[in-house]
Amino acid sequence: QVQLVESGGGLVQAGGSLRLSCAASGRTFSAYHMGWFRQAPGKEREFVAAIMWSGGRTSYADSVKGRFTISRDNAKNTVYLQIDSLKPEDTAVYYCAAASRLLSFSTREYNYWGQGTQVTVSS
Description:
Elements: E1 2-7, E2 10-13, E3 18-26, E4 33-39, E5 46-51, E6 58-60, E7 68-73, E8 78-83, E9 92-99, E10 112-113, E11 117-122
Parallel strand pairs: 2-11
Antiparallel strand pairs: 1-3, 3-8, 4-5, 4-9, 5-6, 7-8, 9-10, 9-11
């Protein structure tokens, strides 16, 4: 089992920045690829970014490329999502997730999920 706890969400004006954190506990964090997803009201959960277990490879949704940066610190069992140039359409609950098998954009590949943190962007 891996327990994931997100933090860092909040209310921010358009153009602002946030840094989301996801702290992991339980099984070996460095064995898992990590992903961030988001879900806006009335919409399906969508892929945002993912990072390989080693941090050596990352992947981003086209809608966030150049504005979002995923990183991890295996010594601290934490994955981060730096969000810059926020837009109102970034408003959503942001979830981190752990995948044991593949670095993927699909929710089906992720074995463990956090409870989410709300990001609200005002125009």
